[in-house]
Amino acid sequence: MNKVLVIDDETYVREMVRLALQQRGFEVIEADSGARGIELARTELPDLILCDVNMQGVDGYHTLSSLRDDPATASTPFIFITGVADHAGMRHGMELGADDYLPKPFSLEVLYAAVETRLKKAHVLRREAETKLTRLRDNISLMLPHELRTPLNGILAYGEFLASDAATLPTAEISEMGQGIYDSGKRLERLIENFLIYAQIELIGVDPQKVALLRQKCTEHPAPLLERHARAQSQLARREADLDLDLADKPVPVSEDYLAKIVSELVQNAFKFSKPGTRVQVTLASLPDAISLSVTDHGLGLSPEQATQVGAYMQFDRKLQEQQGLGLGLAIAKRLTELHGGTLRIQTKKDAGTTVVIKIPHFSK
């Protein structure tokens, strides 16, 4: 049974709404003021809130603002009841997070439609969130043990050999084991680095002041930086000859560190998901209203569904192909782009390659 909270300082309105909703099988709780409504919303956690706009003391706008600031009630569907549905008031309510307006007087059919529509929408959103959470949980449980243990096992195994048999091992074998330890250590370092960067940018994203500071940064001469980091990834993939660069040296409104991270992750993915001998193209171009950075490969590509599911700890067809990492690289590039007021788009076709296009306004705001 869905629970509805009705907040209104007029008794007859509350009673009318309560009786109508009870006839439809809803559980209804009432509050005769905004302050009481905030209290009940936080303790009763209703499935939907109907609230009058004009009330003595704490009005509907303040009630909504208080509930949207509380994580426990931030996503609760909220419908304003108002006798003065003016455009400015409706706009203000929507900016605060109202889901709908119900102008007085209203018929029972209009009341039922508004309540049931919002509850259905909330149910759909909740189901989608649960699906994403399940997918995230499955991906983490599948990837994390493997990604941490594989390089750690290499370090421990080589370390044990060197500790017990170094005196009897040929120099070449010692050198090979040392390289194995180094490579495994670098893999672990990148995992930890990406985890920390992702956590860092998510914290930045919820702080408007930090976002504003972030957008004040700029890389005046990006071409040398992009070339250096793209070539570093081609060397790691042992595919230096496969890299093509077309870089306009125009200012990019992103800090050097974050721009380097974006291109490194995109180029690494391009090499990871394409075969040796196929080209990887990195292009930086200045458009009338934005800077465009694109990375193109001729590899496996993604299905349309996969292209829309880019996110942290998300990998595709992992059971069919070996992949290193936690799936954070593309998610980091996307989130950094968004924090700078830009967009990341994936142009792809299964088995026909992928182009990732980033566009960032010349002056991020």
Describe the structure.
The protein folds into 3 domains: 3-106, Response regulator (Rossmann fold), CATH 3.40.50.2300; 135-199, Helix Hairpins; 211-361, Histidine kinase-like ATPase, C-terminal domain (Heat Shock Protein 90), CATH 3.30.565.10. It has a 5-stranded parallel sheet with strand order 2-1-3-4-5, sandwiched between helices. A 5-stranded mixed sheet has the order 6-7-8-10-9. The protein starts with a strand and ends with a strand. With 365 residues, it is an alpha/beta fold. Residues 311-326 have low confidence and may be disordered. Helices cover 52% and strands 16% of the residues. The relative contact order is 0.08. Helix 8 (222-236) runs parallel beside helix 9 (256-272).
Tags for this model:
3 domains; 10 strands; 365 residues; five-stranded mixed β-sheet; five-stranded parallel β-sheet; Rossmann fold; 11 helices; Heat Shock Protein 90; single chain; Helix Hairpins; alpha/beta
